[in-house]
Amino acid sequence: MRVALCGNPNVGKTTLFNQLTGLRQRVANFPGVTVERKAGTLAGAPHVEVIDLPGTYSLTPRSVDERIAYEVLVGRLEEEPDVVVCVLDAGNLERNLYVVTQVIDLGLPVIVALNMMDVAEENGLAVDASALEKDLGVPVVPITASRGEGIDELKGCILNPPEPAQVYRWQLMDAVDAKIPALIKQLAEEAPHVKPMHLRMEVLRALAEEETLDAWRLEAPEFVNCIVVLQEEFAKRGVAWRHAEVSGRYAWIGPIAQRVSHRFRGPATLSDRIDAVFTHRVAGPLCFLLILVCVFEAVFSWAIPAMDLIEAGVAALAGGVRSVLPAGWVTDLLTDGIITGVGNVVVFLPQILLLFFFLGIMEDSGYMARSAFIMDRLMKRVGLSGGSVLPLLSSYACAIPGIMAARTLDSERDRLITIMVAPLMSCSARLPVYTLFIAAFLPTGKLLGVFGYQGLAMFSMYMMGTIMAFVAAAILKRVVFKGPESYFVMELPPYRRPRLRQLFWRIYQRSRVFAVRAGKIILGCSIVLWFLASFPRTETSPEATQIEEQAIQERNREYAAAQALTPGTDLAVAADSVALTDSTLAHALDLTARADAKYAAALDSANIVRQSTQIRGSAIGYLGCILEPVMQPLGFDWKISAGLVSAFAAREVIISTLGIIYSVGDAEGGVALRDALKADRYPDGRPVFTPLVAMSLLVFFVFALQCMSTLAIARRETNTWRWPIVMWFYMTALAYLASLLVYQGGQLLGLS
Amino acid sequence: MPPAPLTAFCDGCPLKICSVHGCAEERLRDMGLREGAQVEVIQNSDKLIVRLAGCRIGLRRDVAAEIYATPMEA
């Protein structure tokens, strides 16, 4: 048996879902689309599956979410549910009832769960559930989902589902109603797969909604023709066909809502008073900015201990694996390729979790709707709407959740534009790159004694990306996605205290989706990159061999010198004995110990030189050399070019690549790498890295789309490779041009 | 009094909606802002907040300018 939960957004549907299933849930996607399909089994009745449908104001769909809800209910995506629980906000009965009438008309057994009775009562509103039950003709169960009240009664009702109620108890305006039977007949002929029970609803939807009508064009052309002709006729006669259904349904439920709800006191105004500040023309944006600053400060500073821990853990794991397995390329692949590569992504998980946490609080408390609302004016200037604020904000942590968050946008065009510009927001993967180059090449002084140059540089990186995202959106809107102005209407739910348990549950679910998806791609890329950096094999490195030979000779010489001090004793044996009273002997042993340490250090550096030679001869080094002429105008040599190639899959990889090329081992942005970068010279003595080259490289990273996961997620969300490819090309071109401008412009100005 | 756009009313005004136009009209009707609905303007500044039954709806100014209403008798 299958139960679907359906209702408006913000009515506590998900809270009820958690109560009913007791968190025994699975989150997946509906086939073919990226709308989350949340399902679980009813607590105490494992044979009953509960599905949480996306929130919807009506079954005439205006967004992907709403379309999915409809398609599940009519059994087009999966088998139709046996019973539908419509969740209603008792405080806002009339509008909530609208979708209930549509579900009833689908001929499905309906149970109404009247939620938020407590909030309604606090707001001075009483709802008579039994009167509502009588008027609607379906069972009505009053519940308070957040406190678990009424859940048992609802469960009992689900297990003994009612018969379907009488359909179409409302009156369509006569002029339209007269035409419906002919249309139903036409559609039934052309599309025999539509269940007779759903025909009337399909006709009404096609009549009122362009996209639904378009969808029939191929399958039922004659039906579409009839409707188009009819619409013209109606227009001529002045019949308001477009909102015939809405008016008819409201004419039925309006009086019902009025009859069953009793207002006994003026509406509460706590939310209004908070809104007076948070949505104020001046104070609103200021509060928003302040909250943002606090959130980002917290995300970046609180995550550091956890990130250090993960980095140490990954290094320890790689070391452990290396010590257990025999040396060879398989072990190298496992440690350098897979463990380090995946570790590079996992390390950002703390930041992403924290960002999800804060965004979750903003969402659950009701503030998110306000932030979209107050930012709308600014967003409108660049052709977007307030709805894009959340996706773009999320993209500061990572473009993947940002792109996924764009789903909630009504307008498909706004959604595409938001997806296309989201990767320009500086994500956390760029952070280590910014940190390395800013620390290495910018002065530590302070501007006016207050703002550190380095901090300012970091801030300007973020600003540059953000401004460019707005510019790109404005251009895309005018050039690529032309069309009518988008609109912005948003419900502002009452402020509520976030429930931590639910918050953590959702963070867990979302981050798991992120980790699994990104993990798979990064795993693949890490393996490919490792092969590119490791093959063809350069087995010999004369330089390294020379270092090793010198080291052996030196050690032998020092051992001999020490042995000469104590002719009578074999030092190799004496080292293990405990009689160290002889000071000469102790001195000699000290000398040999130092010689050993020096030898070990020399072997290490020989190893690193060998790695460096390897990378120069590898496919990646080769690519770097090919790219060098193209990248030279930006100030990049083959090493940086090779780093950029390796950073294609994930930005932060450039650091480990440069680390290997510069033979400083795996120093993650460490001091050693910084010094090596500063010391590097071209054969003619010019430094490879100047502050200008560093700026050029930083600008490149701000704009370039170097992230396989983003491309993959954009492919999933747009269902075509077209947009990700366009995205990659425009961002790469942007990055190249901006870097060119910085480097060539800087040189003209005499900077270096 | 003839219907005037929502943007013309001051805060706290109880209104009855007469007509809804513009590109958002269908969405607005879905959300309950339809002919005959009773609303109250809570905030009328660079954007509008209206109360409808128990909920608040935020509107961009150009959207609100296409919703016509008349004041209700107190």
Write the layout of secondary structure elements.
The complex is a heterodimer of chains A (752) and B (74).
Chain A (H helix, E strand, L loop, with lengths): L1 E6 L5 H9 L3 E5 L6 E7 L2 E8 L11 H10 L9 E7 L3 H13 L4 E6 L1 H6 L2 E3 L1 H8 L3 E3 L8 H9 L14 H4 L2 H11 L5 H13 L1 H6 L5 H17 L6 H17 E3 L6 H9 L4 H42 L4 H18 L2 H17 L1 H15 L7 H6 L4 H7 L6 H10 L9 H11 L4 E2 L3 E2 H27 L9 E4 L7 H35 L7 H24 L5 H4 L8 H35 L1 H13 L6 H9 L6 H9 L9 H9 L11 H13 L4 H11 L3 H27 L4
Parallel strand pairs in A: 1-4, 1-5, 5-6, 6-8
Antiparallel strand pairs in A: 2-3, 3-4, 7-9, 10-11
Chain B lengths: L3 E2 L8 E7 L4 H6 L7 E7 L2 E6 L2 E6 H4 L2 E5 L3
Antiparallel strand pairs in B: 1-6, 2-3, 2-6, 3-4, 4-5
Oligomer: heterodimer
Write the CATH architecture name of chain B: Roll
SSE series of chain B: EEHEEEHE
How many H/I helical runs of chain B? 2
Radius of gyration of chain A from the CA trace?
A: 33 Å
Secondary-structure-derived class of chain B: mainly beta
- Record field, number of beta strands of chain B: 6
Strand order of the largest sheet of chain A: 2-3-4-1-5-6-8
- The average pLDDT value of chain A, as a whole number, equals 83
Task: Explain what this protein looks like in three dimensions.
The complex is a heterodimer of chains A (about 750) and B (about 70). Chain A contains 33 helices and 12 strands. In chain A, about 65% of the residues lie in helices and about 5% in strands. With about 70 residues, chain B is mainly β. Chain B has one domain: SH3 type barrels (Roll), CATH 2.30.30. Chain B has helices at about 25-30, 60-65; strands spanning about 5, 15-20, 40-45, 45-50, 55-60, 65-70. The two termini of chain B are about 15 Å apart. The interface of A and B includes residues 94 and 377 of A.
